């Protein structure tokens, strides 16, 4: 009965690694998450709302920006923005106060540092602890080790999400 505790722990650690990889991908490529768009009178795509503390908020997109292009492809309709929102965005060109501004994803900006980098460091520290717990628990195979690993992974993933 005790033999599966370590196997479950390893499985949970691997699942958490996949999840963190997915979160990292989203954080680095989804510039438009948290931005609402609409078409204005001039048939241009304009940002109508930015959710606070979202990826769009931290990337520098502002309410009222007119989206000119995404990944060097001209944007003519709000539906095109939604299409790019589910794909990798490497750059956005917006018109702000008559000037064109190019926005690129940056994982090391102030917002991402506090909402992503620090939680990622916490997750890595928890993984380090999980591996020590697994090493110590190889011979004993205690349920308490599994519970501690579940707690550490849950706390670090909750902080990262």
Number of structural domains:
2
Shape: elongated
Largest sheet: 6 strands, antiparallel
What share of the residues does DSSP label as strand, in percent?
Answer: 15-25%
Can you count the helices?
Answer: 5
Question: Structural class, from secondary structure content?
Answer: alpha+beta
Q: Tell me the series of helices and strands, N- to C-terminal.
A: HEEHEEHEEHH
Could you tell me the radius of gyration in angstroms? 21 Å
Mean pLDDT: 83
State the share of residues found in helices, binned by percent.
40-55%
What would you note in describing this structure?
Residues 31-98 form the PDZ domain. This is Histidine kinase sensor protein. One of its GO terms (molecular function) is kinase activity. The chain crosses the membrane at residues 7-25, 113-134, 141-160. Keywords: Kinase, Membrane, Transferase, Transmembrane, Transmembrane helix. The protein is α+β, with helices and mostly antiparallel strands. The chain folds into two domains: 4-27 and 109-160; 32-103, PDZ domain (Pdz3 Domain, Roll). Helices cover 52% and strands 17% of the residues. Strands 1, 2, 3, 4, 5 and 6 form a six-stranded antiparallel β-sheet that branches. A hairpin with a 2-residue loop joins strand 5 and strand 6 (99-103). Helix 1 packs antiparallel against helix 4 (110-136), helix 1 (4-29) runs parallel beside helix 5 and helix 4 runs antiparallel to helix 5. The protein is elongated and about 70 Å long. It starts with a helix and ends with a helix.
């Amino acid at each position: 009965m005790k033999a599966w505790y370590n196997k479950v722990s390893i499985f949970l650690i691997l699942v958490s690694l996949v999840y963190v990889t997915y979160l990292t991908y989203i954080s680095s490529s989804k510039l438009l998450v948290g931005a609402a768009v609409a078409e204005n009178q001039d048939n241009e795509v304009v940002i109508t709302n930015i959710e606070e503390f979202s990826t769009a908020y931290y990337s520098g997109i502002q309410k009222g920006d007119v989206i000119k292009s995404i990944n060097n492809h001209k944007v003519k309709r709000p539906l095109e923005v939604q299409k790019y929102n589910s794909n990798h965005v490497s750059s956005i060109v917006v018109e702000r106060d008559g000037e064109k501004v190019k926005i690129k994803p940056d994982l090391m900006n102030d917002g991402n540092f506090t909402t992503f980098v620090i939680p990622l460091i916490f997750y890595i520290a928890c993984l380090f602890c999980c591996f020590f717990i697994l090493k110590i628990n190889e011979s004993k195979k205690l349920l308490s080790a599994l519970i501690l690993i579940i707690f550490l992974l849950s706390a670090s993933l909750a902080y990262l999400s």
